[in-house]
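Obj: model holo form, ligand = 2-aminohexanedioic acid.
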Amino acid sequence: MTIDLAPHTALFGRLGLSTTSPNQGVYDGTAWKASGPIIDSINPASGSVLASVQEASLEDVQRTMAAARAAFKVWRKVAAPARGEVVRQIRLAIAEALPDLGALITLEMGKIASEGRGEVQEFVDVADYAVGLSRSIGGTVIPSERDKHFITEVSNPLGVVGCITAFNFPIAVYGWNVALALVCGDSTVWKPAQTTPLCAIATNKIIVRVLEDIGYPGAISALLCGGGEIGAGVVDSPEVDLISFTGSEARGRLIGMEAAGKFKQSLLELGGNNAAIVMPDANIPLALQSCTFAALGTAGQRCTTTRRLFLHKSIADEFLKGLVKAYKSVTQRIGRPEDPNTLIGPLHSQDGVERYLRAVDKIKQQGGEILIGGEVHQHADQGLKAGHWVLPTIAFYSTLQGVSIIKEETFAPILHVATFETLEEAIELNNGVAQGLSSALFTQNMSNVFQWIGAEGSDCGIVNVNGSTSGAEIGGRFGGNKSTGWGRESGGDAWKQYVRWSSCTLNWSNELGLAQGVSFE
Ligand code: UN1
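Output (holo structure tokens):
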């Protein structure tokens, strides 16, 4: 394996990363020091080594979880608006480093440059949102049925939040969690994906520097890099109060059960098998552009990627012609993700390529017609030969009888297409999978819109009209239903999961007042 240092030595220097010695993948509030195995972080475009990382050991987990608990005890005493001021400082520091962090995401995760920067912007946005919340979060006052009684719901800091994040959004998803957790008075322990440790180390160095410069313990945002064993250590730790997990349905199911068995809170953002529906009255150019972006952005590796497309029979031929044309032009722009002209970067790992190829085989076995793609991509550029490249793929099904592959999430640029005759039928198709993250309807008809967002409409956590299934803003709660898991991150009232709630009844009379008319003379 070659070491590809020259292009990123300066970038790594600015981000406090080393290209010569192992980067320490643990921060326990006192030192950046890990005692687990040393691994390489790989550039998915070239297959070359970016840098090495020393991961956490199980002893590191124990020490770090205890430090996060101690840090929580300090942090919970700080007034919420003062916590918000710290988050505002973190926001400023992240925004200042945005171009560098964006470039690092592109190098280590493989997403294209504008998406790398957009991901860091998502952290900045959610931090802004959290700063505002720090002056508004609280409970409600409820009218009491008893004289001289006062009922209020009070939110207090919850404790330690374990954030286990995925490779595809290696910075933003921690941003969602840490911004809310911090204004709510919690400390966090971050266990990033094993293949994106550099993004986590660089980001957390910025956060810790802000915390410590102001005089707070750095273990308010602790870090543990490593694989499944380290993640399991965080979940099992008696110190953790809420697990926020983004990843596979299989792993999420286990984590959800484990957390429930210990009466811990959990917030799960698991699979997505998102559909777009195009009605005959849709603005077709808009729908075409939206669906192309949603299916191919991040090379199909967003939880919110459009994986299924249902076209009304009357417009299906015309739409498919336009879609194949768009795919052909996008396919011309597969390349180095840092090149501003590139629209499609590599898959993140060889494992992703293998899953893609297995899905293509299944499509063929199950009667799908590959309209474009369906193969690995051979690069002329020698430097990209060892990267993980596949072609954007459209599979068309004249019938969905016996087609199981469309019900599975394949984290790759594969779009399954079929037709329908009525909106009811399309909604049934949309809802007819285990997952329930995101969805989109393209129509200009108001009745269709209300049907779609109403009781008999999409069963997903994210429901769009005339917009892409992916690319949600931070303002709305983010998450899904059914096997996508439960809980919400980011905007809306997602913060309510990061606090512990008490309903407090205060009697300011001198008499015992009993509710429900009970007397106990
Ligand atoms: C994810 O893929 O896990 O809505 C997060 C989007 C992004 C976040 C995706 N804002 O596509």
